[in-house]
Write a structure and sequence with these properties.
alpha+beta
């Protein structure tokens, strides 16, 4: 399983609150809130970086952007992102 962080962008696990469906009622019956995690959809993919294949953890948003850049004839990964990989 891939880690909860994208190697190409700063996307990582975020934390928040989960609120139950029912919000009405008196103060004693207030909707309960529990802690939860928002995990990015991270996949392990082989990506061509500087002429070499490298296995990286990539979020699906970056995969879509990569496909779009390839169809336009641009390099798949911008040179600024390869410094962090």
């Amino acid at each position: 399983m891939a880690s909860g962080k994208c190697d190409l962008c700063p996307k990582r696990t975020a934390f928040g609150r989960n609120i139950r469906h029912k919000h009405s009622g008196r103060w004693e019956r207030k909707a309960q809130r529990t802690n939860r995690e928002f995990r990015p959809n991270v996949q392990k993919k082989r990506v061509l970086i500087d002429g070499r294949w490298k296995r990286v953890n990539v979020c699906t948003r970056c995969l879509r952007t990569q496909l779009k850049r390839l169809s336009e004839g641009k390099p798949a990964i911008p040179s600024a992102s390869t410094a962090s990989v």
